[in-house]
């Protein structure tokens, strides 16, 4: 099925002239976790919807025209028809022509539930997770991640989240915490790449009065504040060797000393860490301690980039459309078919974070009720990745071809990013949705320089 499939959180439009039918369907679907919109006719204005239930007892040609109009307004929606005798022939023709699903009268709660369960794709087996409603998507790659989270969350095992910037590592870490036995304790995220080494050490471990100039009083560190809960160390691959050694002691002994202190402080903290680096290569290069890597990597979870879960782009777009249009009080209802095709075709190097930024921009710029291609950034409209068949031989093994394609894309993306920002690393990092260290690391990896013309 090419259109929307049923999942919890769907927005469902119910169109019927019988209030009892609307009330009954809303009650059944509400218990299944859906949001029901009860508009009385197809011309009514409301939120974007995923699935439509409708009974339209009208002549054949009028019914077909109305259904086609509905699909033009919301091309991604699945339409479920309540079949009554006068409209059976027209409904059968509609089903042959498009994405329309029959549901026979009289309606029973069990039949409604069974119908929507049949609409669910086979891979849509999302586990129940506290806080899981914030994670949008039903792709097999995402569901695999959520199932792993469901298994590992109740334990105290350290988790290492691996993946590119913008794939939602902090959101996944928070979800693990919410579904753990520590859910009533604190969850404290730390960006290891954003602070200098000395400041990060005092933030993590605290300091004693007089430990350094300006230390006028004793201050506990984040590990103490996180006692009984979870600490999330983002960009853990950026830690200096001395901080790696101190973190290793916390993981092994569950104790540490504040900066300038002598007393050992005991803590009970679960550590979830994340990185977009290849830590195995960093271990080989001597940049990351092997013993620390094994302590952090008890349960590794790889978060797929958005380009590997393209099925989730459309529901993410609709999610951000709802959120930003409601936040900004804009009457936006839908993304046009042409704009959606551009969004689905773009490779999203900044992943979900970049898509979120693009949708926020589009909602701000859109003049009507529908987001159009001209509301999207130039790079999304034009695309920046050359056809793979023009650049990479397709007779290579899959993994090698994939690695070379990603390398080519990174080089082209960096070159054009720095051309647009005039070589300004800070601005480039903001536009790409990554930190400065990531830009510097990728420049070094590909032998590129910000101060001169970049060539492939």
Please give a quick description of this structure.
This protein has 19 helices and 14 strands. The protein has helices spanning 19-31, 60-73, 88-97, 109-119, 140-152, 169-178, 197-205, 222-225, 241-253, 279-284, 290-296, 313-327, 337-345, 351-365, 378-382, 388-391, 398-421, 425-432, 436-446, and strands at residues 11-15, 35-37, 51-54, 78-83, 100-104, 159-162, 187-191, 230-234, 255-256, 265-266, 270-275, 299-302, 334-335, 370-371.
Commentary on this structure:
The protein is 44% helix and 12% strand. Helix 9 packs across helix 11. The protein folds into four domains: 109 residues, Response regulator (Rossmann fold), CATH 3.40.50.2300; 171 residues, Rossmann fold (3-Layer(aba) Sandwich), CATH 3.40.50; 74 residues, Orthogonal Bundle (Helicase, Ruva Protein, domain 3), CATH 1.10.8.60; 59 residues, Arc Repressor Mutant, subunit A (Orthogonal Bundle). It is globular. The chain contains 19 helices and 14 strands. It has a five-stranded parallel sheet with strand order 2-1-3-4-5, sandwiched between helices. Strands 7-8-11-6-12 form a five-stranded parallel sheet. It is an alpha/beta fold and 456 residues long. 32% of the residues are buried. The N terminus and C terminus are likely disordered.
């Amino acid at each position: 099925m090419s259109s929307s499939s049923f999942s919890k959180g769907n927005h469902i439009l119910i169109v019927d002239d019988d209030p009892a039918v609307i009330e009954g369907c809303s009650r059944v679907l509400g218990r299944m976790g859906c949001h029901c919109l009860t508009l009385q006719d197809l011309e009514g204005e409301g939120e974007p919807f995923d699935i439509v239930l409708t009974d339209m007892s009208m002549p054949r040609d009028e019914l077909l025209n109305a259904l086609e109009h509905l699909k033009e307004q919301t091309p991604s929606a699945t339409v479920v028809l309540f079949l009554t005798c006068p409209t059976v022939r027209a409904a059968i023709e509609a089903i042959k022509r498009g994405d329309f699903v029959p549901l026979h009268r009289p309606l029973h709660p069990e039949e409604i539930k069974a119908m929507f369960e049949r609409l669910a794709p086979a891979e849509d087996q999302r586990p129940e997770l506290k806080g899981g409603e914030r994670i949008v998507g039903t792709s097999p790659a995402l569901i695999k991640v959520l199932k792993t989270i469901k298994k590992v969350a109740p334990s105290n095992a350290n988790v290492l989240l691996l993946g590119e910037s913008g794939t939602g590592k902090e959101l996944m870490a928070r979800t693990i915490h919410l579904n753990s036995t520590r859910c009533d304790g604190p969850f404290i995220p730390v960006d290891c790449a954003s602070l200098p080494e000395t400041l990060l050490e005092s933030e993590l471990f605290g300091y004693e009065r007089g430990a350094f100039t300006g230390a006028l009083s004793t201050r506990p560190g984040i590990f103490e504040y996180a006692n009984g809960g979870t600490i999330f160390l983002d960009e853990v691959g950026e830690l200096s060797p001395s901080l790696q050694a101190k973190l290793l002691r916390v993981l092994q002994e569950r104790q540490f000393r504040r900066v300038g202190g002598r007393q050992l402080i005991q803590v009970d903290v679960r550590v979830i860490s994340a990185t977009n680096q290849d830590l195995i290569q960093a271990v080989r290069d001597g940049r990351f301690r092997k013993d620390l890597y094994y302590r952090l990597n008890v349960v590794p979870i790889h978060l797929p980039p958005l380009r590997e879960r393209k099925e989730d782009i459309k529901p993410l777009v609709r999610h951000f459309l709802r959120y930003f249009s409601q936040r900004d009080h804009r009457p936006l209802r839908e993304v046009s078919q042409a704009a959606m095709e551009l969004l689905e075709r773009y490779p999203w190097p900044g992943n979900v974070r970049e898509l979120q930024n693009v949708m926020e921009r589009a909602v701000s710029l859109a003049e009507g009720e529908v987001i159009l291609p001209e509301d999207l950034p130039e790079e999304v409209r034009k695309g920046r990745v050359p056809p793979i068949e023009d650049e990479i031989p397709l007779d290579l093994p899959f993994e090698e071809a994939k690695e070379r394609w990603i390398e080519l894309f990174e080089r082209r993306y960096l070159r054009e990013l720095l051309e647009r920002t005039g070589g300004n690393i800070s601005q480039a990092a903001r536009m790409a949705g990554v930190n400065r260290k990531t830009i510097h690391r990728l420049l070094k990896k590909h032998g590129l320089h910000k101060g001169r013309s970049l060539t492939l």
